Every structure is written in structure tokens, then in C-alpha cells.
Amino acid sequence: MNYAATISYDGTAFCGWQRQSGVPTVQQSLEEAIGKIFGEPTTVFAAGRTDAGVHGKGQVVSFELPVGWDPGRLLLAINYYLPETVRIMNIYHVSDDFNARFSALWREYRYYIWHGPAFPPYLRERAWWNRWKWDKEAVGKACEYVKGTHDFRAFCPIKECPDNTIRTIYTFRWHQNGQLSIVTIRGNAFLMNMVRILIGSLDLVGKGKQSPEWIRDLLNGKGSRRESGMTVPAHGLYFWRVGYDASPFLNGLPKIKEKAGIFVPSDFWRKHI
Known about the structure:
The protein is an alpha+beta fold and 273 residues long. The protein has 2 domains: 2-103 and 244-272, Pseudouridine synthase I, catalytic domain, N-terminal subdomain (Alpha-Beta Plaits); 106-238, Pseudouridine synthase I, catalytic domain, C-terminal subdomain (Alpha-Beta Plaits). The protein contains 6 helices and 11 strands. It has helices at residues 26-38, 71-81, 136-146, 194-206, 212-218, 267-272; strands at residues 2-9, 45-46, 55-64, 86-93, 106-115, 128-130, 148-151, 166-177, 180-187, 237-243, 258-260. It is globular, with a radius of gyration of 19 Å.
């Protein structure tokens, strides 16, 4: 029986999504929790694999179980065995051909930045402290250049770049609310560290150290990682949501049969979504 779920997690103490030997990961936590219920190993697939320290608000996962369970009971049972830093927020019984990763049409990330001379402690490990104020016009222009289909080779670690570094970005925008600013990026897929390097490059444009056209030129496939901006800290990054074809759950899970759970954002997210 195939299930899909939205999960939320605090990435601070995790070494990323993917299971690794000897270190805590989000995938390991979920697979172990499910294993305690059913007594056999289960593989959990995610829409996107986040790095160490990256948080998840609307990550989508899928997994198969040996028997069918009521989604409401399953949500409570898995959450019982999960650490407090990981929670299943919604769970759905879906068609057998659904896979959280391969069925996804797009993924969306958001990056939170606090600008100013003093950093509020409640945002520690939740946003990146950037003391500089960004140039609104320059950053907006750079964001427009990023949208579309480009070669993002310059925005991936040299040793981690796959053969194909072409990606399509549907949305790339910067929004400021007082001293807190948010960068939203939605695309069909992402390279390792791509979002964080893009924002590190955007930072150079915002400070006036590079022009918006500099980012445009890096997207022609001839640029290298040595030329782009720094990799900004992981703790400001959130895996926000995923899009699927023809379905009401985060723009979709196909052929939904049953669901359980409601995600209600905190006051912080209500204010800044």
C-alpha cells in the first residue's frame, strides 16, 4: 500500500535528508519510526534531498507499507516514534505509481535573511544574519535574469556537478518585510548547494560589488564555481513545498483515496508567508 505525507522538520541537528552511516538524518528518523511499527525495513523517498542544517516546511515523502492503515492512525503512530524535530503534518493513501521524487513537477525553497546591525536571538538557526542593506533595484533585476532555463554549472560545487547542469527556474524573487527579507525560488530541480550559491551571488549584487549582468553572464554555462558568490549558511534555507500534477494537495498528489492531518502555520509563518 502506497502512502505520501507532508513532513516538517528542524534541520539544525540533522546531517541532511539522506541516510548516512553514523550520523542523524531525517530519512533515517522516518524509516526507523516506520520500522518500529511494522517490524520490517521501509525506504522513504523525498521530493528533495536537503543538506545538513536545512529545514523543511512542506517536504513531501512517499513509502510503501506491507498492509493498509487508516491515514489518521498512521500519522499518530509514526509521529509517536519520531523525534520532536520531525513531524508528519499530513498523510495520504495514494496510487501505486506515485513517487514523491519522480512524480514532482517543481520544488520551491525559501531563504530567510535578517538585515541590520543587531540580530534577534529567536531567529538563531532560522535565518541568515546579513548586516548589509541590499539595493532593491539591482537585486530585482538579477532575479529576473535567473528565471528561465539556464546552465547552472557555476552554482554547484565543482566536485559535485553532474554532467547535465541545465535547470529551469519558474520563480525567483526577493521580498522584504522590514529587516527580514525572503528569497523564493521555484524550479524543476536543483543542483547541490545551488540555491545557497545563488543567494550568495545575489548578496554581491545587493551590496553593489557585482552588477546584475554578472549573474546573467554566469548562467551561460561558461562560468565556473570560482567566479560565483559564497555558499550562504544552511540554516536560513527551507524546503517550502512541492508541485504535482492535477491534485489538491500542494498542487497535487494524484488519485488521493484518503487523507489525514491539517497543517496550521505558526504566527511567525502567518506573518511572513
